[in-house]
Automatic annotation (TrEMBL):
One of the GO biological process terms: proteolysis
Gene3D superfamilies: Metalloproteases ('zincins'), catalytic domain (3.30.2010.10)
Skewed-composition ranges (Basic and acidic residues): 228-244
Protein name according to UniProt: M48 family metallopeptidase
Amino acid sequence: MSPAPPISSPALPSPLPATLSWAADWWELWALIAAGFLGVRLAPVLVSRAERPDALPEEVARAVERAGVPPDRVGVLGRDGRVVAYAAGLTAGHGRVFVSTGLLRELDPEGVAAVVRHEHAHLGRGHVPLRVGIPCAYAVAWAVDATLFGQAGLVAGAALAIPLAYLSVRVARWTEYDADAVAARGTGDDYREALARLAAAGHLGRTAPAGGRLRRLLAALSMHPPLGERLDRLDEPPGSRADARIPTGPRTRATRSDD
């Protein structure tokens, strides 16, 4: 009588084919994420082609260069009636900062340079990929959860949307404080004076949330922290927070003591 053949355990699927198959099932998600990052990456080119920004005036360009930002990475948008300053792109190497002619009319060259340094810090310190990456990571985690747990995973992912919104707000506010610190360390009092001047002219809203509960709630959900909190942080002594580790950058007119 011949011995019975050994009982073999069922073969487990190879992780790589299973992962590729799962990824193919969620191709719309990957396409959406890729389109989001590509759109942010191409934003400087799109803005430049759509609005044809001008170069900085010579005096402002010199102040921007002293603040540690290449002047050729800054474009001026023809908007006399609006005070605008924002960073576009993913990194400092490929991104650009755009300011409006209204901002140039409102501030002196050193103030404009301080604001530009704040916006450029968003690019140089990786704030933009961080802001974009958080919802993308959430979407991927939701897809994994839905694959593993079906309908229950979908429901659990939807329930996590509120904590995600809170996390996104907290991270966005941290990036603003971080960029504030970079600008203040690179331009001295010029940055604080620029914020105060813009606030006095009504361009930055209230220094603190006001009104009823709804307004306070909306203010709490704003990506930008209240101006009062930003100014308070700028007034704190160096080393009182983690942003003390931020490099000081080039010294400028407002920070030199030998002038």
